[in-house]
Amino acid sequence: MKKKSLILAISVLLASCNHEAEQKEESSPRLAESKEMVTEMATISEDFKIEDIEVSSADIGDFPFLNLPTGLQAANVLEKNFDVCFFPLDGRMVPFEGRLYKANVVASQGEDYSKRYFEKSIEEYLLAIGAVKVFDGEITKEEYERYHRKDPNKGGAGDMGYWDQHIHFYVVRSKDNGNIYIQYTSNNAGGQLNILQETVFEQTITKITSDKIADDLAEKGKAILYINFDTEKSNLTAEGKEVVKEITAALHKDKSLKISIDGHTDNTGDATHNKRLSQDRAEAVVDHIILDGISQDRLIAKGFGSSNPLFSNDTEQNKAKNRRVELVKIN
Questions:
Q1: H or E stretch at 183
Q2: Cα separation, 136 vs 138, whole angstroms
């Protein structure tokens, strides 16, 4: 069976230039739910010890480590560089975190779907690479109602974990790729497949500082920032004002520095509106910098709307990258 490599690219951004829903403090119910999930993950080892599964030295290729058998294809694929997925342990859906692949499985054009063919193909391959079956059955309706509101990945690709689904759950402890969790289910019309490669979360959020801004301007001639504004307005939020203070500090340190403050949006909505909004926001940043004692003749405000994207606006992640403020050094 051939193995294919799926390359994932995803960025986590702090804020956006014209984000429809700016990040705010989570409500106490949401915080409680988050704490509950962390506690649940921390107690997994009481019921399931990954160390009890023998390490496999099989060459399993690249993520997601298996392709579909001939005559079947993936549809509505979901891929995340880091996320959570729930797997059944003794009938209880338990969250695991890592690199995630989820897909619906359907027949290729001109082929008929066979539940037996899909399940037998996956099972024999998993066993051949040293996977161990840890669950084979259904969860209760009560268990579904308990956990399903916590699952952020329901509603599209590879949905699994309903009380009327027969779930097959396997674990591979790969010598080269770490712990890998695979679950699948099927009926006579099609199947679902979930694969998670367990990884440790890496924090990528860092504080924007005047030194970093100055370094970027000196080395690249440009600094890309993500500044919070009120939704569909040019009013800076408290977080946005903190970022602007760092811009001002960089300008105070280098008295000769002049910059253009360029506002950018994604392509959502009316182009004329987006250009006007990006101009207003760039001017709002300039106004706050002037209030902090920087001369206006060192600053220019420009709004480009969606005309200069960094990435194609084909995903929400890429749109978030395009919603930005750029500081461009003026020579």
A1: strand 178-186
A2: 7
More confident residue, 22 or 59: 59
Confidence class for position 3, pLDDT limits 50, 70, 90: very low
User: Does residue 64 have a cis bond before it (omega within 30 degrees)?
Assistant: yes
Q: Are 213 and 205 in contact (CB under 8 A)?
A: no
Those residues whose C-beta lies under 8 Å from the C-beta of residue 295, and which sit 6 or more positions away, are: none
**Distance of alpha carbon 248 from the chain centroid:** 32
Strand partners, 326: 224, 262
pTM above 0.85, yes or no: no
Judged by DSSP in three states, 135 sits in: strand
Mean pLDDT of 258-273: 93
Q: Going from the N-terminus, what domains does the chain have, and what CATH number goes with each? A: 55-198 (no CATH), 210-329 (3.30.1330.60)
Burial annotation 32-49 (CB, 10 A radius, 16+ → b, else e): eeeeebeebeeeeeeebe
Q: State the helix-helix crossing angle for 238-253 and 271-291, rounded to 10 degrees.
A: 60
Taking residues 100-106, what's their average pLDDT? 95
